[in-house]
Amino acid sequence: MYTLNKLMISFQPMRLLTVFATTLTLAAEIVGIVGQSAHAIQLQDGTVWFEKSPSLIATTTTFNNTYVWGATYYFTLSLPENAGEPLQRVTITQIEGLDNIRYQLEDSYAFEGRRRDKGKKLTLGEVTRNRDNREVSVTFDPPVPPGKTVTIALRPVRNPFDDGIYLFGVKAFPAGEKAYGLNLGVGRLQFYRRGYIF
Questions:
Q1: N or C end: fewer C-beta atoms under 10 angstroms in the chain?
Q2: Distance of CA 116 to the CA centre of its chain
Q3: Mean pLDDT computed over 13-27
Q4: Which residues contact 107 (CB under 8 A, 6 or more apart)?
Q5: Closest CA to 166 of 67, 120, 99
Q6: How many helices (H) and strands (E) does the chain have?
Q7: What are phi and psi for residue 19, nearest 5 degrees?
Q8: Model pTM?
Q9: Distance between CA atoms of 181 and 50, rounded to whole angstroms?
Q10: CB environment 130-145: b (16+ within 10 A), e (fewer)
Q11: Alpha-carbon distances of 1 from 7, 144, 165, rounded to whole Å
Q12: Are 149 and 112 in contact (CB under 8 A)?
């Protein structure tokens, strides 16, 4: 019995070393997985996804009276450091509101930062509108790298004639020929009727 106990004691350091080595291996694998999280997800068919989704953080307007000319609508997005891919394109779709808002697409612009803290101006590529589904598509050229906050400014021909709440679905697409768009949420603007403006 004494000999058996002595043998068990002598084998315990070896067992501890094995457990320690296994723990180190698992830790290394976890670090490897975390290290890979900076890369975008790409499916077998070539579709590219963001690793970490951008977020819609603000939707505002310079004027909220109905039928006013010269307003600007701002949509501010945050692209996290670990997004995995740059931001290539954003679509803004009017999903609620009686009046179909039309835009002066050539006056659209974008910049780093927020509406009241404007940074560097960003270069836009195509800015298009699909009248059938009330969608505006804004393309960044070059794409916006991860870790940035950006604001898209759209200039309507005029504010809606009808008052009420207007909702806009915002979707972000990573760079790539086959990019999967992520829904970032809904931007909300409210317009008030305060007498007619001529």
A1: C
A2: 20
A3: 41
A4: 155
A5: 99
A6: 1, 12
A7: -60, -45
A8: 0.77
A9: 9
A10: eeeebbbbbbbeebbe
A11: 10, 72, 84
A12: yes
Q: Which tokens sit at 131?
A: 């009248």
Average of pLDDT values for 135-162?
97
What residue type is assigned to position 129 of the chain?
R
Q: E strands, 15-108, where?
A: 41-42, 48-49, 55-61, 73-78, 87-96
DSSP class of 164: E
Closest CA to 108 of 80, 133, 89, 95: 89
**What three-state secondary structure class fits 31?**
helix
**DSSP-derived secondary structure letter, 82:** T
Residue 12 in this model has a pLDDT that exceeds 70 = no
Domain ranges of the chain: 2-36, 48-191
CATH topology of domain 48-191: Immunoglobulin-like (2.60.40)
Report the pLDDT value the prediction gives residue 35, as an integer from 0 to 100.
34
If you average pLDDT over residues 128-134, what whole number do you get?
94
Q: How far is CA 14 from CA 11, 19, 22, 163, in A?
A: 5, 9, 12, 77
Q: Is 189:144 a contact under the CB 8 Å cutoff? A: no
Q: Which residue has the higher pLDDT, 7 or 28?
A: 7
Q: Indicate the pairing of strand 164-174 with strand 182-191.
A: antiparallel
